[in-house]
Amino acid sequence: MTSPQPSDPVSRRRTFAIISHPDAGKTTLTEKLLLFGGAIQLAGAVKAKRNAQQTRSDWMSIERERGISVVTSVMTFEYGDCVFNLLDTPGHEDFSEDTYRTLSAVDAAVMVIDAAKGIEARTRKLFEVCRLRDIPIVTFINKLDRDGRDPFSLLDEIEKTLALDTAPVTWPIGSGRSFAGTYCFETKSVRKIDADTEPMTVSGLDDPALLALLPAHEADAWLEEAMLAEEGCKKFELAAFREGHLTPVFFGSALRNFGVRDLIDAMAEYAPSPRGQDADKRHVEAKEPKMAGFVFKIQANMDPNHRDRIAFMRVCSGKLARGMKAKIVRTGKTISLNAPQFFFARDRSIADEAYAGDVVGIPNHGILRIGDTLTEGEEISFRGVPSFAPEILRRIVISDAMKAKKLREALRQLAEEGVVQLFLPNDGSGALVGVVGALQLDVLATRLEAEYGLETKYETSRFGICRWITSQDPIALKSFIESHGSSMAEDIDGAPVFMSSSEFQLRYDAERHSAIVFSDVKDYQ
Ligand code: GDP
């Protein structure tokens, strides 16, 4: 499937994430992808995370205790002529806003689905974030070596629940115990399980050599279904895929390292090279010569004596070279990129420079915040990193009232880092914090104590959800805010936020105030 790739540094790059529900097989697939990328030593590193042995990002004690990665890491590997940047989206309870933000820094995603379970809650949620930017998605239906659901019902579920067209590129030959491999419709070739050799070309689905792979009593029924799929399913179309409307589907088993090569070949061939990015004043093309990028994640050092942090920046254009100076557009300050971290790079030529699509870590002492744009001087701000309305709201309280001011300042700093969202009620009552994953609350409490010496606890709030509000009509907005004083708050940027006890109540209010737009997503400005 691979075709010769143009080899300029930007065209070679593929920056992607894997989206899946916990246990669908993301970690296993990541390991296998890294193996193909020749980064064999790294495959062990991914595993080690599991065992809480050592991880590159093992700075936070909470992370060590739980043996999970609170932070998003970046893995770079080469395959064929491509440089892949795989941005890890934390998987389990460690689901957080970082997971969402990471998706603002990728150009494509691999959606892993457990063949027995189909689309699960987390997959749907992450998919929806991808859809906001129409990110192209390649689907990998995993665990075919186990009994799973019928392929048609899985494809149907993707189409119905995600409103995404599906085009099976391969079709499974048998399943569970009789899973023998996959058939590729386009090339009429068979890839056999446990044989990492060139695919076997056959005359078609009814080729006896293919049917012989199945137990005799299954062959007829299988052939009938596979022919139905060949005729009835949509064919892969590059344009529809690139626009995010159609997903090519691959079947395989990450555990058995099967189907992974087809998947990575498809990423090399079909997935887009780094896309241009929208900034406030103009669109920035990836191949423009001047360096520009945005910060989508901040990782703090847990050591209370050091307030150093790593800002993860996606390079959007130009070339980032070690030692260059960049302007932080929000503040106008200049930062020297003396020690940018290049991730898992295997050779020095990659390690000293980064191009559009790459992610670099920039050590700093708090001058960078999420959403920051860095340029070679131009005054533009990327619009890439959104905030999502939190799913959990808590009131944060401190036992020592004397420290209320310190708490407010600490919360502001941590909110700037993206640890939580902060909402200050208009009626002057105590601050509310909002998160999308419960672990963020633990991280916040741990850091408040370790870094600021503040002992806090959470109380439930009468508010369950919140929405940013805007309106074309400034008078209507002002009057809404005034008449809903006790349900209004400001976020960290001073934007008005309406808080409500339930979806039902929110709908009730929204219906009565049609001039107001209630939004669950907010772009960082
Ligand atoms: P994650 O939570 O999405 O990262 O999932 P993991 O990669 O940790 O996999 C969850 C479980 O499913 C582990 O026990 C894996 O060994 C298992 N698993 C992953 N891929 C496959 C597969 O292709 N076949 C089978 N039978 N098990 C798998």
Write up this protein.
It is a single chain. This protein is of the alpha+beta class and 525 residues long. The protein has 16 helices and 32 strands. The chain has three domains: 9-270, Rossmann fold; 277-375, Rossmann fold (3-Layer(aba) Sandwich), CATH 3.40.50; 389-523, Peptide chain release factor 3, domain III (Alpha-Beta Plaits). The chain is 29% helix and 28% strand. Strands 27-24-26-25-29-30-28-31 form an eight-stranded antiparallel beta sheet. A seven-stranded mixed beta sheet has the order 2-3-1-4-5-11-6, with helices on both faces. It has a seven-stranded antiparallel beta sheet with strand order 18-17-22-14-15-21-19. Helix 2 (26-36) packs antiparallel against helix 3. The structure holds guanosine-5'-diphosphate. Guanosine-5'-diphosphate is lined by residues 20, 22-28, 91, 142-143, 145-146, 253-256.
Proportion of residues in helical segments? 25-40%
Question: In the CATH hierarchy, what is the architecture of the largest domain at level 2?
Answer: 3-Layer(aba) Sandwich
Cα-atom radius of gyration:
24 Å
CATH superfamily of the largest domain: P-loop containing nucleotide triphosphate hydrolases
Task: Give the strand content.
Answer: 25-35%
Question: Number of helix segments?
Answer: 16
The N- and C-terminal alpha carbons lie at a distance of 42 Å
* Weakly predicted, low-confidence segments: 1-5, 40-72, 345-350
Let me know the largest β-sheet: 8 strands, antiparallel
- What ligands are attached or bound here? guanosine-5'-diphosphate
